[in-house]
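ugh finaly. both done.
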Amino acid sequence: MRFGWSFEYFRLVYFIFTFINILILGVSCKGTVDYDLILKGGTVVDGTGAIRYVADVAIRGDRIIAVRADIPISRASRVLDVTGLVVAPGFWDNHAHLVKLEEYPNAENFIRQGITTILASLHSQDQPFPLDDYMGRVSMAPNVGLFAGHTWIRKRVMGLENRPPTNEELAWMSALVDSSMQQGALGFSTGLEYVPAVFANTDEIVTLAEIAASYGGIYVTHMRDEGARVLDSIRETLEIGKRAGIPIQINHHKVTGAAHWGLTKKTLAILDSADAVGQEVAHDVYPYTAFSTYSDILFPGWALAGGPDEFQNRVNDPVTRRRLVSEMSTIFLQQTGSGPESIKFRSVNSHPKMQGRTLADFLTVLGRPNTIVEAVDAIIELQLSGGFIGIFEGMAEDDVIRIISHPTSMFETDGDLVELGMGFPHPRSYGSFPRILSKYVRDKEVLTLEEAIHKMTLLPALWIGQSDRGLIRKGAIADMTVFDFETIQDKATYNDPHHFSTGILHVFVGGVAVLNNNKITGKRPGRFIERSRN
């Protein structure tokens, strides 16, 4: 009896001892894991512009720990075979609209383009305020950079008034810029083609840009004009930069209106001249010949001043209306192609059935001739009913290629957060970055793969002052995109926009997979980019 008890006791002690040793061994083994993830055998395009090479990339936490051939896989928690695929830094979108970020925090239409960082310039949209409260409560998949937006600031202080600010109003606007910069804005942005920013003179913009400059910020702008007065607009932008002592960035560099096609030769020469004398200048572009915006751009600014009621009064006055029609007939050809068929409706609340159809279609429905005069009258009537958002066929392919291939250009989508199948977005919201890689790199060979990736990654990261982002290198933050260069392709079109691009297989933000084997993971590791420019 005693022997039996002793044997059972001994066996119990033995099992306990063995179990403890297994636990200890497990902890010990776990402690020898050097990497959370190894991307094995991929073709690394590191973002610097250097020639691609085959290597493994090891990640621990949010950092790249090693980039070399034949990293042992035995001590990695996870190994992903990416043989034959391109491993690149995550792409930077230099301008997109994120007003619905809290509604669509996974930002799927951007992530599926390989985009890991989005700059929300807010130049013509409302700015969240206070910024620090917003940044404290919002989680999202991509990294995001925010700006102090002039349109929101001017509307808050002056409404839609067509006049210079008083000293008191300018002081209030200055305080809002200052507060936004203190709370994390990367700089100051303007949308000078839109009401009410169109009413601001250069001195007003310089005063506000000086505040952003004092914090080490940059000035980002949708310029005052991208058509007939595009050269003057670039010169004004450069003047603002010089007077305010601030680096300047032109969003969606383009030339609109068939009469002005080819002017990119001059716009780029002006930027090159500024760069040659030491002014800090940047510009970006999206790879489409049509832009998308509000119907406001088809009106002279004075017509929309004061809001809808005052616009109605002007339209009702026969003399003022004749002046309006005359000016709009000129503006129409400066902004679009040759006729009403060059405008497609994205959103028109007063006539929802016209979504996806053209202004020429609308004239046909109304039983009117397809002429510029009739088109202008129809646009005025639509504006009285709330206006519309349209896609405007207004740029030349040669101009787009010229900007894409310029050594200092970067890329953007100018896109919106969209839900698959909802609304009628511009295809740029789904396809901008894959389109560059498929059409302008693989097919047309406008850029090499290394050049394009540099423009998508390290170039914009360094412009914002983020030296540990935008490249595949030991110590860099592990924002990465893995894609198949042979199959990457944009699928969204103007007539059928709701298609994700193909070829993007894996996307990592801070080492966390937000797209894994072409599936959205739902993880939200994105961070708000902190200002770190000198």
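ok and the 2nd:
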Amino acid sequence: MDASGDEQTLNRFLDRRRFLIAGTASLTGSISGCGYLIRGKDSDADPLSVAEDPDSTRFIGEIAGTWGTRFSQVQSVGLVTNLKETGSDPPADELRTRLINEMKINKVMNPNEILADPSTSLVVVRGWLPPGIQKGDSYDIEVVAPPRSKTASLRDGTLMPTQLRRTERRGGELHQGHVSSSAAGAILVDSIFSEESDSNESRGRILGGGVAVQSRPIGLYIRDESGSVSASLLVASAINRRFDTFKDGSKTGVATPKDNRIIELLVPRAYRLNIGRYLAVIRNLPFRESNGSRQVLMTQLESELREPVVAEQAAKKLEALGEAAVPILLRGLTLDNSEIRFYAAESLAYMGEVQAASVLGEIAATSPAFRWHAITALASMDDVEAGVALSNLLHHPNIETRYGSFRAMFARSPQDPTIAGKRLSSFYLHSVVSDSEPFVHFSRVRRPEIVVFGHDQRVRSGFLYVGQGLTVKAIGEGQLDITLYGASGGDQKVVCSDRVSDLIETLSGMGVTYGKMLAMFRTAEREGQLQGKVAVHAVPNPKRRYDRESTEGQEAAMHQGPLPDLFNDSQREREWQTSSGTGLSEADLEMVDGEEKVSKLQQMGDFFKIKKRTD
């Protein structure tokens, strides 16, 4: 999602003042779905006046920017337990002092003795709250042993419950805000996801281990030259005529002015997986039109929709116009150019038009450049046809496409029997019917999850795996003999079928962890003992770009811009923003405040400087 310099400046302003802008007199009027305003000073000239051209149209993006669209860093100091003698007693520094204080607040007895136990380790805990996250939503957590730590490995450790706060740099020091999230759970060291020999196990992640304790709003701000009560009212009214949603069981407009400049936005259900598109459509929404300008605009946009170079922007503007633009977009579906057909279908999908489903399904299957946006648009739809289009993609030969479809179907309807799974001891297992090459997919973000594509997939005859404390051996007649050595209560021996999903479920019941499961399947794949292949985090690369001059079948191509939220995660988004040269600056990525760039190493070293926020 874009974040211009104006937006970054506003973000800092909003965060520090907590959305309070000077104003003293109450506005006497209100508009439906918007609430009341605090009246600010109106300018003498009307910055919203319509140009002399009687057919002119003003768009919201001309006078308003967006806020709340960046990832917000939160962090804390935490305690990891259950390590296998690989932990360490932390040095006597401010990190240790802070953790001991937290332990005392939570009435933990003998904190120094606990820290001295080699089964524990002090860690720095970090998270990046995504834009629009709601209270109770989960997200991924990063844990890392500090530079001075002697901890050898965090493998199989468990982070004890801790509270994370937003931080910012001011005057060379880090300042700490209110609690934004809680975090806890089983740690997966980063090295288990790498096929390279990586001995560094002092860094890991907890998939879905963070839980937001407050929502992060998003919205618009009226730029200085246009800031007035009438501007906020006019913009909010235009948005609420186009968009509504349900809040606390009641239908309401999505836009609520907070004062003469700030408008807070709710996100309609259709856009929950692609907030960036929602904001882009709002920026293309007219807020003032003169007599006759609407028809002139629609005629112009229909002409632009037929030109690939400007078709994307035209489709967003038509989407912003709502129901009246549907016939134009439907005509766009009939054109020969697949790029134009995609833009038209994408807009129709977010407008809930069922005709878009089959076109998007076809484009997702054949056009890598538009695949991820097409799948996300299908996930936004409630129609049966959209579900059929997504389920057809489960048979696609490309594993990214299959897993992308699975993720879309799960986000759309977790109880869909086509992709329904079960919660095992420390992860989720889904067995999916798929006619293409068998795959076993392991997730690396959001939640620990194994998806078996090919529900009747089996290991090969003669299967043999010998790992640390675990042996799995084929014994004939479609059966496997499993021995887990040194388990609590002694060695465990179990016999199960050679079906991959049965093997995973049996191993989980014996206490085999997600990481050990991945290691076993990777070894089995290298030794040719599986019917299919193993994949990890098979989601699109955010650095791909669409080249209109290249062939559409080029697998390296991708629709321009960042990935939709459905396929995004905080680390990949931060990498994309840095590499693309747009949105977040490197300084913004290192410190949320964006005023001063520091390295990650220095951030950890400066952790002890954190002070309580005083304003």
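summary for the 2nd one i guess: Residues 1-45, 552-558, 572-615 have pLDDT under 50 and may be disordered.
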